[in-house]
Write a structure and sequence with these properties.
Number of domains of chain B: 1
Strand content of chain A: under 5%
Helix content of chain A: over 70%
Number of strands of chain A: 0
Oligomer: heterodimer
Structural class of chain B: mainly alpha
Distance between the termini of chain A: 28 Å
Largest sheet of chain A: none
Helix content of chain B: over 70%
Order of helices and strands of chain A: HHHHHHHHH
Shape of chain A: globular
Number of domains of chain A: 1
């Protein structure tokens, strides 16, 4: 048991160290996220009421796109230099290895993105309760994106680039988007948001339970 | 049981059986299709509210039934591919994906054509429409993923994983979309909630449903046969058959 925790931490630490040493991917992803958010107001004008209404949604869309593009970062180089192959040959369960990878992705790419989006929503002067709910939905929703996305990235890495990956992730991510936006809209008109947040939590639990298994199966397919 | 599956899964056996079966299936399809269309377009009375434009349901409703049914087949044969690695299951999945995507597209297109005179617009953000659209994207994703592998067997298993994830997600997508659109739009028009349908309209619909299902099996078998010939090209029985 301790051995497993140990190997999990080692793998996680390795990915984090790599990310800290080579910050380009991580900074590019954040910059992309911020640019997209500032591009949206250019398309529908500077009417503050409209901005108020659409900002949470566009933060979510930007987070989704940024996640789609950043997912390859954690897996691609490991696929290319054979690290993943060595890991699958090791005696540790593949679910453990893939969980560590997924968690590394969330910490490196999504966690900073959540912090940045808090600042962005402050700058765009959203009401406090909306920011609160946005924060909670991002906190619950982005791990689901990482989990679903990691299955897809393992299936597609090295094939046709991120276009195919986005094609696979985007339809599956729709429920997350819907429930997050529902919760945020309810918060904006001061109604209860617990139902949607519970549902997001439920989806997160489901994804945590099943996605590492599916990722492991996908790894086995790709390595065969 | 397992041995039977193995035998059934052997390409040559399947090829011979499917030649016989598809002949009969084709006949049933043709009869049901003609009878269903005649019953639906000529015999059935016009609807008291929608007039004659309701008749598109004879194309539309069976197509949307099939779109979900074929996805289920896709997922089941995907599971069989993953667990037992039976070649035929891969062929079924591969061919079903394209046929299923066509059914889904047909359902969406006929729905839009019907929506224009009825709702005054081609597209509304109704829960059913949206989840049908997502289903189309799932099909397209499956086809895109599977066709980007060089090695067919790896592609089959990768696609199988994707199809299974899709199956877990379909109910979630469906209910989330339903919740979203009902909260936003209030009650939407949903034509199956109308008072129960008269049998002179129902019987052609059922005939069309049978015609669609047999058409699916018929095209599936044709596709599978060509897949078998393609992948078993070097087997003696294929060479013998082509040589004849």
């Amino acid at each position: 048991m301790f051995e497993y925790i140990n190997i999990f931490c080692t793998l996680l630490k390795r990915d984090l160290v790599i990310a800290i040493r080579d910050k380009t991917d991580f900074i590019n992803s954040l910059t992309f996220f911020v640019i997209i958010i500032f591009l949206f107001p250019l398309t529908y004008g500077t009417d503050s009421e409209l901005i108020m209404k659409f900002t949470p949604g566009m933060i979510w869309i930007s987070a989704l796109l940024a996640t789609c593009l950043s997912l390859e970062g954690v897996f691609r180089s490991d696929f290319e230099d054979g690290t993943i192959e060595q890991l699958t040959l090791s005696r540790y369960p593949l679910t453990l290895i893939s969980s560590a990878k997924i968690m590394a992705h969330w910490i490196i790419y999504s966690a900073p993105l959540i912090v940045i989006s808090l600042f962005m929503s402050l700058i765009l002067s959203l009401p406090t309760n909306v920011i609160m709910v946005l924060f909670i939905t991002l906190l619950l929703g982005t791990p689901i994106l990482s989990l679903i996305g990691s299955i897809m990235v393992v299936l597609t890495v090295g094939l046709r680039g991120s276009m195919l990956l986005s094609l696979l992730i985007l339809p599956l991510s729709m429920p997350i988007l819907i429930f997050s936006i529902l919760a945020i809209n309810n918060a904006a008109i001061n109604q209860s948001t617990s139902a949607e947040i519970y549902f997001l939590g439920g989806m997160l639990v489901l994804a945590i339970t099943l996605a590492p298994i599916a990722t492991a199966a996908a790894l086995r397919v790709r390595m065969s | 049981m397992y041995r039977w599956i193995q035998q059934f899964g052997s390409p040559k056996y399947f090829y011979d059986i499917s030649l016989v079966v598809s002949k009969w299936i084709g006949v049933i399809c043709l009869i049901c299709f003609i009878a269903g269309l005649y019953g639906g377009l000529v015999i059935a009375p016009p609807d008291y509210q929608q007039g004659d434009s309701y008749r598109i349901i004879y194309i539309h409703v069976p197509a949307s039934w099939m779109s979900l049914f074929v996805y289920m087949i896709l997922a089941i044969s995907g599971a069989i591919t993953l667990i037992w690695r039976i070649k035929i299951a891969d062929f079924v999945a591969r061919s079903s994906a394209i046929i299923g995507a066509s059914f889904t597209f047909l359902a969406l297109a006929t729905g839009a054509i019907w929506g224009k005179p009825m709702w005054g617009t081609y597209w509304v953000w109704d829960a059913r429409l949206t989840s049908e659209l997502i289903l189309l994207f799932l099909y397209l994703g499956y086809i895109a993923l599977q066709s980007s592998f060089e090695d067919r067997r790896v592609g089959a298993r990768a696609g199988a994983i994707l199809a299974l994830i899709g199956v877990i997600n379909i109910p979630i997508i469906h209910y989330s979309v339903e919740w979203w659109s009902t909260l936003h739009q209030g009650p939407t028009i949903s034509k199956l909630d109308a008072p129960s349908i008269h049998y002179s309209m129902l019987i052609p619909l059922l005939l069309m449903a049978i015609a669609y299902k047999t058409f699916y099996i018929y095209t599936l078998l044709i596709n599978i046969r060509s897949e078998i010939i393609e992948s078993e090209y070097n087997a003696t029985w294929v060479k013998k058959m082509i040589g004849d």
